[in-house]
Design brief:
By secondary structure, the protein is α/β, with parallel strands linked by helices. Helices cover 34% and strands 17% of the residues. It binds NADP nicotinamide-adenine-dinucleotide phosphate. One of its GO terms (molecular function) is NADP binding.
Length: 512
Protein backbone atom coordinates (compact mmCIF):
# COMPACT_ATOMS: atom_id res chain seq x y z
CA UNK A 1 0.00 0.00 0.00
CA UNK A 2 1.15 3.51 -0.85
CA UNK A 3 2.59 5.10 2.32
CA UNK A 4 0.64 8.28 1.81
CA UNK A 5 -2.61 6.32 1.82
CA UNK A 6 -1.80 4.55 5.06
CA UNK A 7 -2.53 6.20 8.38
CA UNK A 8 0.51 8.33 9.14
CA UNK A 9 1.30 6.75 12.47
CA UNK A 10 1.34 3.25 10.91
CA UNK A 11 3.33 4.31 7.86
CA UNK A 12 6.03 5.82 10.07
CA UNK A 13 5.67 9.24 8.46
CA UNK A 14 4.81 12.58 10.02
CA UNK A 15 1.18 13.70 9.75
CA UNK A 16 0.10 16.13 7.10
CA UNK A 17 -1.51 18.95 9.02
CA UNK A 18 -3.80 21.76 7.84
CA UNK A 19 -4.36 24.83 9.97
CA UNK A 20 -7.27 27.14 9.17
CA UNK A 21 -6.42 30.77 9.86
CA UNK A 22 -3.21 32.72 10.35
CA UNK A 23 -4.29 34.83 13.30
CA UNK A 24 -2.38 34.62 16.54
CA UNK A 25 -3.53 31.05 17.30
CA UNK A 26 -2.68 29.79 13.79
CA UNK A 27 0.81 31.26 14.04
CA UNK A 28 1.33 29.80 17.53
CA UNK A 29 0.22 26.41 16.20
CA UNK A 30 2.80 26.39 13.40
CA UNK A 31 5.65 27.23 15.75
CA UNK A 32 4.71 24.69 18.44
CA UNK A 33 4.06 21.94 15.89
CA UNK A 34 7.39 22.50 14.18
CA UNK A 35 9.18 22.61 17.52
CA UNK A 36 7.76 19.17 18.27
CA UNK A 37 8.91 17.89 14.87
CA UNK A 38 5.57 18.18 13.04
CA UNK A 39 6.85 19.99 9.99
CA UNK A 40 4.36 19.13 7.29
CA UNK A 41 2.02 22.02 7.98
CA UNK A 42 -0.08 24.11 5.59
CA UNK A 43 -1.99 27.17 6.74
CA UNK A 44 -5.11 28.22 4.84
CA UNK A 45 -5.81 31.93 5.17
CA UNK A 46 -8.89 33.56 3.63
CA UNK A 47 -7.26 37.02 3.51
CA UNK A 48 -4.06 38.35 1.97
CA UNK A 49 -2.22 38.91 5.27
CA UNK A 50 -1.68 37.29 8.66
CA UNK A 51 -3.05 38.66 11.92
CA UNK A 52 -6.72 37.61 12.09
CA UNK A 53 -8.68 40.02 14.23
CA UNK A 54 -5.68 42.38 14.40
CA UNK A 55 -5.58 42.50 10.62
CA UNK A 56 -9.35 43.06 10.26
CA UNK A 57 -9.74 45.69 12.98
CA UNK A 58 -8.09 48.99 12.08
CA UNK A 59 -10.34 51.50 13.76
CA UNK A 60 -8.98 54.63 15.48
CA UNK A 61 -8.13 54.03 19.13
CA UNK A 62 -7.63 50.27 18.64
CA UNK A 63 -5.63 48.72 21.43
CA UNK A 64 -5.74 45.62 23.57
CA UNK A 65 -6.74 45.71 27.23
CA UNK A 66 -4.53 42.71 28.03
CA UNK A 67 -0.99 43.80 28.95
CA UNK A 68 1.64 43.69 26.17
CA UNK A 69 4.08 41.29 27.80
CA UNK A 70 1.27 38.82 28.48
CA UNK A 71 -0.15 39.35 24.99
CA UNK A 72 3.06 37.92 23.56
CA UNK A 73 4.01 34.41 22.56
CA UNK A 74 6.22 32.62 25.07
CA UNK A 75 8.52 31.76 22.15
CA UNK A 76 8.76 35.38 20.98
CA UNK A 77 9.02 37.76 23.95
CA UNK A 78 9.06 41.36 22.80
CA UNK A 79 11.11 43.83 24.86
CA UNK A 80 10.14 46.65 22.48
CA UNK A 81 6.44 47.06 23.32
CA UNK A 82 5.86 50.81 23.40
CA UNK A 83 2.94 50.74 25.87
CA UNK A 84 1.76 48.71 28.83
CA UNK A 85 -1.36 47.84 26.78
CA UNK A 86 -0.42 47.15 23.17
CA UNK A 87 -1.72 49.32 20.35
CA UNK A 88 -3.53 47.53 17.53
CA UNK A 89 -0.99 48.60 14.95
CA UNK A 90 1.86 47.31 17.10
CA UNK A 91 0.22 43.92 17.61
CA UNK A 92 -0.24 43.67 13.84
CA UNK A 93 3.45 44.47 13.32
CA UNK A 94 4.43 41.97 16.04
CA UNK A 95 2.43 39.18 14.36
CA UNK A 96 4.01 40.04 10.97
CA UNK A 97 7.46 39.93 12.55
CA UNK A 98 6.79 36.57 14.21
CA UNK A 99 5.62 35.27 10.81
CA UNK A 100 8.94 36.27 9.27
CA UNK A 101 11.23 35.43 12.20
CA UNK A 102 9.84 31.89 12.38
CA UNK A 103 9.66 31.49 8.61
CA UNK A 104 5.92 30.82 8.71
CA UNK A 105 4.96 32.68 5.51
CA UNK A 106 6.22 29.91 3.26
CA UNK A 107 3.57 27.50 4.52
CA UNK A 108 0.60 29.89 4.28
CA UNK A 109 -1.79 29.81 1.36
CA UNK A 110 -3.17 33.32 1.34
CA UNK A 111 -6.56 34.23 -0.14
CA UNK A 112 -7.56 30.61 0.04
CA UNK A 113 -10.67 30.23 2.20
CA UNK A 114 -11.48 26.65 3.10
CA UNK A 115 -14.93 25.83 1.76
CA UNK A 116 -15.43 22.25 2.81
CA UNK A 117 -13.94 19.58 5.07
CA UNK A 118 -15.03 15.98 4.70
CA UNK A 119 -13.93 13.30 7.14
CA UNK A 120 -13.06 9.84 5.91
CA UNK A 121 -12.84 8.62 9.47
CA UNK A 122 -9.11 9.03 9.74
CA UNK A 123 -8.36 11.92 7.40
CA UNK A 124 -9.84 15.08 6.08
CA UNK A 125 -10.56 16.03 2.51
CA UNK A 126 -10.09 19.81 2.43
CA UNK A 127 -11.72 21.73 -0.41
CA UNK A 128 -10.97 25.29 -1.51
CA UNK A 129 -11.92 27.11 -4.69
CA UNK A 130 -8.49 26.20 -6.05
CA UNK A 131 -8.92 22.46 -5.61
CA UNK A 132 -8.65 19.92 -2.84
CA UNK A 133 -6.09 18.11 -0.74
CA UNK A 134 -6.07 15.45 1.97
CA UNK A 135 -4.80 15.95 5.52
CA UNK A 136 -4.31 13.65 8.49
CA UNK A 137 -5.04 16.38 11.02
CA UNK A 138 -6.96 19.64 10.75
CA UNK A 139 -6.63 22.40 13.31
CA UNK A 140 -9.13 25.22 13.22
CA UNK A 141 -7.56 28.50 14.29
CA UNK A 142 -10.43 30.48 12.79
CA UNK A 143 -11.01 32.67 15.83
CA UNK A 144 -14.15 33.68 17.70
CA UNK A 145 -15.13 37.24 16.87
CA UNK A 146 -14.80 37.51 13.11
CA UNK A 147 -18.34 37.56 11.70
CA UNK A 148 -19.64 41.12 12.07
CA UNK A 149 -23.13 41.38 13.49
CA UNK A 150 -25.10 44.07 11.71
CA UNK A 151 -28.03 45.60 13.56
CA UNK A 152 -31.53 45.07 12.23
CA UNK A 153 -32.36 48.75 11.95
CA UNK A 154 -34.96 49.71 9.34
CA UNK A 155 -33.60 51.92 6.58
CA UNK A 156 -29.94 50.91 6.93
CA UNK A 157 -29.62 51.05 3.15
CA UNK A 158 -31.38 54.41 2.86
CA UNK A 159 -28.63 56.32 4.69
CA UNK A 160 -26.77 58.58 2.25
CA UNK A 161 -23.62 58.93 4.34
CA UNK A 162 -21.00 56.26 4.95
CA UNK A 163 -21.98 53.31 7.11
CA UNK A 164 -19.76 50.36 8.03
CA UNK A 165 -19.03 47.85 10.77
CA UNK A 166 -16.20 48.71 13.18
CA UNK A 167 -14.13 45.74 11.93
CA UNK A 168 -14.37 46.99 8.34
CA UNK A 169 -13.06 50.50 8.92
CA UNK A 170 -13.12 52.72 5.83
CA UNK A 171 -10.15 55.08 5.93
CA UNK A 172 -11.64 57.54 3.47
CA UNK A 173 -14.91 58.00 5.37
CA UNK A 174 -15.45 61.55 6.72
CA UNK A 175 -14.33 61.74 10.35
CA UNK A 176 -12.21 64.85 10.98
CA UNK A 177 -14.51 67.82 11.34
CA UNK A 178 -17.47 65.65 10.33
CA UNK A 179 -20.67 64.47 12.01
CA UNK A 180 -20.10 60.90 13.15
CA UNK A 181 -22.44 58.41 14.82
CA UNK A 182 -21.31 55.34 16.77
CA UNK A 183 -23.82 52.63 17.61
CA UNK A 184 -22.93 50.61 20.70
CA UNK A 185 -21.01 51.01 23.94
CA UNK A 186 -18.98 47.78 24.07
CA UNK A 187 -15.17 47.56 24.15
CA UNK A 188 -14.92 48.58 20.50
CA UNK A 189 -17.28 51.57 20.67
CA UNK A 190 -15.57 52.80 23.86
CA UNK A 191 -12.19 52.89 22.11
CA UNK A 192 -13.59 54.55 18.96
CA UNK A 193 -15.54 57.21 20.86
CA UNK A 194 -12.44 57.87 22.98
CA UNK A 195 -10.31 58.36 19.87
CA UNK A 196 -12.79 60.39 17.79
CA UNK A 197 -14.16 62.79 20.40
CA UNK A 198 -11.53 65.43 19.70
CA UNK A 199 -11.52 64.90 15.93
CA UNK A 200 -15.18 65.13 14.92
CA UNK A 201 -17.30 68.25 14.65
CA UNK A 202 -20.07 66.28 16.32
CA UNK A 203 -20.06 62.76 17.70
CA UNK A 204 -23.27 60.95 18.65
CA UNK A 205 -22.89 57.74 20.64
CA UNK A 206 -26.07 55.64 20.52
CA UNK A 207 -26.26 53.63 23.74
CA UNK A 208 -28.77 50.82 24.18
CA UNK A 209 -27.32 49.53 27.46
CA UNK A 210 -24.79 51.31 29.69
CA UNK A 211 -21.52 49.48 30.37
CA UNK A 212 -19.30 49.25 33.40
CA UNK A 213 -16.01 50.90 32.46
CA UNK A 214 -12.88 50.00 34.33
CA UNK A 215 -10.01 52.49 33.92
CA UNK A 216 -7.20 51.34 31.64
CA UNK A 217 -3.91 52.11 33.35
CA UNK A 218 -2.17 52.82 30.07
CA UNK A 219 1.46 53.83 30.17
CA UNK A 220 4.08 54.57 27.54
CA UNK A 221 7.31 52.67 28.22
CA UNK A 222 10.44 54.78 28.35
CA UNK A 223 13.57 54.06 26.28
CA UNK A 224 15.30 53.12 29.52
CA UNK A 225 12.65 50.54 30.35
CA UNK A 226 12.81 48.99 26.87
CA UNK A 227 16.60 48.88 27.12
CA UNK A 228 16.30 47.05 30.42
CA UNK A 229 13.76 44.61 29.02
CA UNK A 230 16.06 43.82 26.10
CA UNK A 231 19.17 43.39 28.26
CA UNK A 232 17.99 41.58 31.40
CA UNK A 233 17.36 37.96 30.54
CA UNK A 234 14.01 36.70 31.73
CA UNK A 235 12.56 40.14 32.51
CA UNK A 236 9.85 40.07 29.77
CA UNK A 237 8.98 36.59 31.05
CA UNK A 238 8.70 37.89 34.59
CA UNK A 239 6.41 40.68 33.39
CA UNK A 240 4.37 38.10 31.47
CA UNK A 241 3.61 36.25 34.69
CA UNK A 242 3.18 39.42 36.77
CA UNK A 243 0.45 40.67 34.41
CA UNK A 244 -1.04 37.20 34.16
CA UNK A 245 -1.33 36.80 37.91
CA UNK A 246 -2.64 40.36 38.37
CA UNK A 247 -5.64 39.67 36.15
CA UNK A 248 -6.18 36.05 37.05
CA UNK A 249 -6.23 36.77 40.78
CA UNK A 250 -8.64 39.69 40.49
CA UNK A 251 -11.01 39.54 37.50
CA UNK A 252 -10.87 35.72 37.58
CA UNK A 253 -12.42 35.36 41.07
CA UNK A 254 -14.76 38.34 40.44
CA UNK A 255 -16.37 36.55 37.51
CA UNK A 256 -16.46 33.22 39.37
CA UNK A 257 -18.67 34.60 42.13
CA UNK A 258 -16.22 36.07 44.67
CA UNK A 259 -18.38 38.92 45.95
CA UNK A 260 -15.54 40.86 47.56
CA UNK A 261 -13.59 41.03 44.29
CA UNK A 262 -16.78 41.67 42.44
CA UNK A 263 -17.57 44.69 44.66
CA UNK A 264 -14.04 45.96 44.22
CA UNK A 265 -14.45 46.00 40.45
CA UNK A 266 -17.84 47.65 40.69
CA UNK A 267 -16.55 50.22 43.15
CA UNK A 268 -13.60 51.08 40.88
CA UNK A 269 -15.92 51.46 37.88
CA UNK A 270 -18.22 53.78 39.87
CA UNK A 271 -15.22 55.80 41.03
CA UNK A 272 -14.01 56.00 37.42
CA UNK A 273 -17.43 57.32 36.36
CA UNK A 274 -17.73 59.81 39.20
CA UNK A 275 -14.28 61.26 38.82
CA UNK A 276 -14.77 61.89 35.07
CA UNK A 277 -18.47 62.60 34.58
CA UNK A 278 -19.66 65.45 36.81
CA UNK A 279 -23.16 65.92 35.35
CA UNK A 280 -25.48 63.75 37.51
CA UNK A 281 -27.99 63.25 34.70
CA UNK A 282 -25.32 62.00 32.31
CA UNK A 283 -23.88 59.86 35.09
CA UNK A 284 -27.28 58.27 35.70
CA UNK A 285 -27.59 57.44 32.01
CA UNK A 286 -24.15 55.83 32.07
CA UNK A 287 -24.80 53.70 35.16
CA UNK A 288 -25.63 50.05 34.45
CA UNK A 289 -28.39 48.21 36.31
CA UNK A 290 -26.60 44.85 36.24
CA UNK A 291 -23.47 43.56 37.94
CA UNK A 292 -20.00 44.57 36.76
CA UNK A 293 -18.37 41.77 34.79
CA UNK A 294 -21.69 40.32 33.59
CA UNK A 295 -21.03 41.66 30.12
CA UNK A 296 -17.39 41.63 29.07
CA UNK A 297 -15.90 44.36 31.26
CA UNK A 298 -14.94 47.39 29.18
CA UNK A 299 -11.46 48.47 30.21
CA UNK A 300 -11.03 51.95 28.82
CA UNK A 301 -10.20 55.40 30.19
CA UNK A 302 -10.89 57.49 27.12
CA UNK A 303 -14.64 56.91 26.70
CA UNK A 304 -15.82 59.00 29.67
CA UNK A 305 -13.26 61.69 28.84
CA UNK A 306 -14.78 61.95 25.36
CA UNK A 307 -18.42 61.69 26.38
CA UNK A 308 -18.19 64.81 28.57
CA UNK A 309 -16.96 66.95 25.66
CA UNK A 310 -19.33 69.60 24.32
CA UNK A 311 -19.25 68.15 20.80
CA UNK A 312 -20.06 64.61 21.98
CA UNK A 313 -23.55 63.43 22.85
CA UNK A 314 -24.70 60.24 24.54
CA UNK A 315 -27.99 59.36 22.87
CA UNK A 316 -30.11 57.02 24.98
CA UNK A 317 -33.38 57.24 23.09
CA UNK A 318 -33.88 54.06 21.11
CA UNK A 319 -33.03 54.12 17.43
CA UNK A 320 -36.17 53.98 15.33
CA UNK A 321 -34.72 53.90 11.83
CA UNK A 322 -32.08 55.25 9.51
CA UNK A 323 -33.06 57.97 7.08
CA UNK A 324 -31.05 59.42 4.19
CA UNK A 325 -29.76 62.20 6.49
CA UNK A 326 -29.02 60.20 9.63
CA UNK A 327 -30.50 58.35 12.58
CA UNK A 328 -34.07 58.98 13.72
CA UNK A 329 -34.61 58.16 17.39
CA UNK A 330 -37.88 57.36 19.11
CA UNK A 331 -38.21 60.92 20.47
CA UNK A 332 -38.63 61.97 16.79
CA UNK A 333 -35.21 63.64 16.69
CA UNK A 334 -33.08 63.33 13.58
CA UNK A 335 -29.35 62.98 14.29
CA UNK A 336 -27.84 64.17 11.01
CA UNK A 337 -24.62 62.28 10.21
CA UNK A 338 -21.89 62.00 7.59
CA UNK A 339 -20.55 58.68 8.87
CA UNK A 340 -22.11 55.95 10.98
CA UNK A 341 -19.96 53.26 12.62
CA UNK A 342 -21.72 50.07 13.67
CA UNK A 343 -19.93 48.83 16.80
CA UNK A 344 -22.59 46.20 17.20
CA UNK A 345 -20.40 43.20 17.88
CA UNK A 346 -19.98 39.82 16.28
CA UNK A 347 -21.77 36.53 15.79
CA UNK A 348 -19.85 34.69 18.47
CA UNK A 349 -21.14 31.17 17.81
CA UNK A 350 -19.57 30.44 14.43
CA UNK A 351 -15.94 29.46 15.07
CA UNK A 352 -14.91 27.39 12.01
CA UNK A 353 -18.28 27.93 10.29
CA UNK A 354 -19.26 28.75 7.53
CA UNK A 355 -16.82 26.05 6.41
CA UNK A 356 -19.03 23.07 5.54
CA UNK A 357 -17.61 20.45 7.91
CA UNK A 358 -18.88 16.90 7.40
CA UNK A 359 -18.05 14.34 10.06
CA UNK A 360 -17.17 10.67 9.84
CA UNK A 361 -20.80 9.55 9.73
CA UNK A 362 -21.88 12.16 7.22
CA UNK A 363 -23.20 14.59 9.87
CA UNK A 364 -22.75 18.34 9.36
CA UNK A 365 -21.01 20.29 12.12
CA UNK A 366 -23.42 23.19 11.52
CA UNK A 367 -26.35 20.85 12.34
CA UNK A 368 -24.61 19.22 15.30
CA UNK A 369 -23.85 22.63 16.79
CA UNK A 370 -27.00 24.51 15.81
CA UNK A 371 -26.93 27.88 17.54
CA UNK A 372 -25.16 26.56 20.65
CA UNK A 373 -21.78 25.06 19.75
CA UNK A 374 -20.03 22.89 22.30
CA UNK A 375 -16.73 21.02 22.30
CA UNK A 376 -14.84 18.63 24.53
CA UNK A 377 -12.31 20.70 26.47
CA UNK A 378 -13.08 23.47 23.95
CA UNK A 379 -11.01 21.58 21.38
CA UNK A 380 -12.81 18.64 19.76
CA UNK A 381 -16.25 17.30 18.90
CA UNK A 382 -17.44 13.65 18.89
CA UNK A 383 -17.83 12.30 15.36
CA UNK A 384 -15.21 14.67 13.95
CA UNK A 385 -11.98 12.70 14.44
CA UNK A 386 -8.63 14.41 14.05
CA UNK A 387 -10.25 17.85 13.97
CA UNK A 388 -9.05 20.23 16.68
CA UNK A 389 -10.03 23.74 17.65
CA UNK A 390 -7.97 26.53 19.11
CA UNK A 391 -10.15 29.15 20.84
CA UNK A 392 -13.10 26.81 20.27
CA UNK A 393 -16.50 26.73 22.00
CA UNK A 394 -16.42 26.90 25.79
CA UNK A 395 -12.88 28.25 25.95
CA UNK A 396 -11.71 30.81 28.45
CA UNK A 397 -12.40 34.33 27.22
CA UNK A 398 -12.13 37.54 29.18
CA UNK A 399 -9.91 36.51 32.09
CA UNK A 400 -6.94 35.04 30.26
CA UNK A 401 -4.79 36.33 27.41
CA UNK A 402 -5.96 34.54 24.28
CA UNK A 403 -2.34 34.29 23.20
CA UNK A 404 -1.57 32.06 26.16
CA UNK A 405 -4.82 30.09 25.72
CA UNK A 406 -3.77 29.26 22.14
CA UNK A 407 -0.33 28.13 23.25
CA UNK A 408 -1.72 25.96 26.04
CA UNK A 409 -4.20 24.32 23.67
CA UNK A 410 -1.67 23.65 20.92
CA UNK A 411 0.66 22.05 23.47
CA UNK A 412 -2.20 19.73 24.43
CA UNK A 413 -2.81 18.85 20.76
CA UNK A 414 0.91 18.17 20.24
CA UNK A 415 0.76 15.68 23.12
CA UNK A 416 -2.18 13.93 21.44
CA UNK A 417 -0.18 13.69 18.21
CA UNK A 418 2.78 12.28 20.14
CA UNK A 419 0.48 9.64 21.63
CA UNK A 420 -0.92 8.81 18.17
CA UNK A 421 2.61 8.34 16.91
CA UNK A 422 3.67 6.17 19.84
CA UNK A 423 0.58 4.00 19.75
CA UNK A 424 0.13 3.87 15.98
CA UNK A 425 -3.29 5.49 16.04
CA UNK A 426 -5.14 6.55 12.93
CA UNK A 427 -7.79 8.67 14.59
CA UNK A 428 -8.69 10.29 17.87
CA UNK A 429 -12.04 11.81 18.71
CA UNK A 430 -13.69 12.53 22.05
CA UNK A 431 -16.04 9.90 23.48
CA UNK A 432 -19.61 11.11 23.56
CA UNK A 433 -19.85 10.38 27.27
CA UNK A 434 -16.69 12.39 28.05
CA UNK A 435 -17.98 15.26 25.92
CA UNK A 436 -21.37 15.23 27.64
CA UNK A 437 -19.90 14.96 31.14
CA UNK A 438 -17.45 17.76 30.47
CA UNK A 439 -20.11 20.08 29.08
CA UNK A 440 -22.65 19.21 31.79
CA UNK A 441 -20.04 20.19 34.38
CA UNK A 442 -19.32 23.46 32.54
CA UNK A 443 -23.03 24.24 32.22
CA UNK A 444 -23.51 23.72 35.95
CA UNK A 445 -20.46 25.78 36.86
CA UNK A 446 -21.22 28.60 34.42
CA UNK A 447 -24.63 29.17 36.01
CA UNK A 448 -22.86 30.30 39.17
CA UNK A 449 -20.68 32.85 37.38
CA UNK A 450 -21.37 36.56 37.08
CA UNK A 451 -21.93 36.04 33.33
CA UNK A 452 -25.12 34.12 34.19
CA UNK A 453 -26.18 35.70 37.50
CA UNK A 454 -25.27 39.33 36.79
CA UNK A 455 -28.63 40.28 35.26
CA UNK A 456 -27.55 41.18 31.72
CA UNK A 457 -27.65 39.93 28.15
CA UNK A 458 -24.27 39.59 26.49
CA UNK A 459 -22.60 37.92 23.54
CA UNK A 460 -21.37 35.25 25.95
CA UNK A 461 -24.90 33.79 26.17
CA UNK A 462 -25.93 31.60 23.27
CA UNK A 463 -29.15 29.89 22.20
CA UNK A 464 -28.85 27.42 25.11
CA UNK A 465 -29.50 30.33 27.48
CA UNK A 466 -26.11 29.77 29.16
CA UNK A 467 -22.85 31.66 28.66
CA UNK A 468 -20.64 29.60 26.36
CA UNK A 469 -17.40 30.08 28.29
CA UNK A 470 -14.93 28.15 30.38
CA UNK A 471 -16.46 28.47 33.83
CA UNK A 472 -13.68 27.50 36.24
CA UNK A 473 -10.79 29.61 37.53
CA UNK A 474 -7.75 30.01 35.25
CA UNK A 475 -5.62 27.74 37.49
CA UNK A 476 -8.05 24.89 36.84
CA UNK A 477 -7.92 25.59 33.10
CA UNK A 478 -4.15 25.19 33.17
CA UNK A 479 -4.56 21.93 35.08
CA UNK A 480 -7.26 20.67 32.71
CA UNK A 481 -5.04 21.34 29.74
CA UNK A 482 -1.74 20.09 31.10
CA UNK A 483 -1.92 16.50 29.85
CA UNK A 484 -4.51 14.73 27.70
CA UNK A 485 -6.25 11.78 29.33
CA UNK A 486 -6.61 9.38 26.42
CA UNK A 487 -9.39 7.52 28.24
CA UNK A 488 -11.62 10.45 27.27
CA UNK A 489 -11.12 9.68 23.58
CA UNK A 490 -12.06 7.02 21.09
CA UNK A 491 -8.78 5.75 19.71
CA UNK A 492 -8.80 4.12 16.31
CA UNK A 493 -5.81 1.85 15.72
CA UNK A 494 -4.15 2.35 12.35
CA UNK A 495 -4.72 -1.19 11.10
CA UNK A 496 -8.39 -1.42 11.94
CA UNK A 497 -9.05 2.03 10.58
CA UNK A 498 -7.62 1.30 7.15
CA UNK A 499 -10.50 -1.10 6.56
CA UNK A 500 -13.05 1.11 8.15
CA UNK A 501 -11.92 4.23 6.40
CA UNK A 502 -12.36 2.49 3.07
CA UNK A 503 -15.90 1.67 4.09
CA UNK A 504 -16.41 5.21 5.31
CA UNK A 505 -15.05 6.70 2.09
CA UNK A 506 -17.74 4.82 0.23
CA UNK A 507 -20.39 5.85 2.74
CA UNK A 508 -19.18 9.42 2.39
CA UNK A 509 -19.56 9.33 -1.34
CA UNK A 510 -23.14 8.15 -0.85
CA UNK A 511 -23.82 11.08 1.50
CA UNK A 512 -22.50 13.52 -1.05
P1 LIG B 1 -20.12 43.96 21.88
O1 LIG B 1 -19.39 43.89 23.15
O2 LIG B 1 -20.98 42.82 21.49
O3 LIG B 1 -20.97 45.30 21.92
C1 LIG B 1 -21.95 45.58 20.96
C2 LIG B 1 -22.61 46.89 21.31
O4 LIG B 1 -23.54 47.22 20.30
C3 LIG B 1 -23.39 46.83 22.62
O5 LIG B 1 -23.29 48.06 23.26
C4 LIG B 1 -24.81 46.56 22.13
O6 LIG B 1 -25.80 46.98 23.02
C5 LIG B 1 -24.82 47.43 20.89
N1 LIG B 1 -25.83 47.03 19.92
C6 LIG B 1 -25.89 45.87 19.23
N2 LIG B 1 -26.95 45.88 18.41
C7 LIG B 1 -27.55 47.08 18.59
C8 LIG B 1 -28.71 47.68 18.04
N3 LIG B 1 -29.47 47.04 17.13
N4 LIG B 1 -29.06 48.92 18.45
C9 LIG B 1 -28.31 49.55 19.38
N5 LIG B 1 -27.21 49.05 19.94
C10 LIG B 1 -26.84 47.82 19.55
O7 LIG B 1 -19.12 44.22 20.63
P2 LIG B 1 -17.68 44.88 20.60
O8 LIG B 1 -17.66 46.15 21.34
O9 LIG B 1 -17.24 44.87 19.19
O10 LIG B 1 -16.80 43.88 21.43
C11 LIG B 1 -16.86 42.49 21.19
C12 LIG B 1 -15.76 41.82 21.97
O11 LIG B 1 -14.53 42.03 21.30
C13 LIG B 1 -15.52 42.37 23.36
O12 LIG B 1 -16.45 41.94 24.29
C14 LIG B 1 -14.12 41.87 23.62
O13 LIG B 1 -14.15 40.52 24.01
C15 LIG B 1 -13.49 42.00 22.25
N6 LIG B 1 -12.74 43.26 22.19
C16 LIG B 1 -11.63 43.31 22.96
C17 LIG B 1 -10.89 44.45 22.95
C18 LIG B 1 -9.65 44.47 23.81
O14 LIG B 1 -9.14 45.53 24.08
N7 LIG B 1 -9.15 43.33 24.26
C19 LIG B 1 -11.26 45.57 22.20
C20 LIG B 1 -12.40 45.48 21.42
C21 LIG B 1 -13.14 44.31 21.43
P3 LIG B 1 -26.37 45.97 24.16
O15 LIG B 1 -25.33 45.99 25.24
O16 LIG B 1 -27.66 46.54 24.54
O17 LIG B 1 -26.50 44.62 23.52
Amino acid sequence: MDDTLMPWAAAGRMPKIAIIGSGLSGLAAVVHLRKAGYDDVTVYEKAAAVGGTWRDNRYPGLSCDIASYWYSFTFAPNPRWSHRYPLGEEIRAYLEKVTDDFDIRRCIRFETPVERLVSTGQRWRLVTRHGEDTYDIVISAAGILHHPKLPEIPGLRDFRGRVFHSSRWEDDAPVDGARVGVIGTGSTAAQIVGALGARCARLSCFQRTPQWMFPLLQKRYSGWWKWLMARVPGLPRLMYHAHRLALERTLGPATMGNTLMQRLFEWTCRWNLQRTVKDPDLRRKLTPDYRAGCKRLVICSTFYEAIVRDNVELVTDAIERLEPEGVRTRDRRLHALDTLVLCTGFHSNRFILPVDVIGSEGQRLADVWGEAPRAHRAMSVPGFPNLWFLEGPGGPVGNISLVSVSEIQIRYIVQVLDAMRRRGLAAVSPRRLSFERYNADLAQAVRRTIWATGGCRSWYIDASGDPNLYAHPPARFYRDMRRPDLAEYELTPAQASTERSHFRDQAQERVE
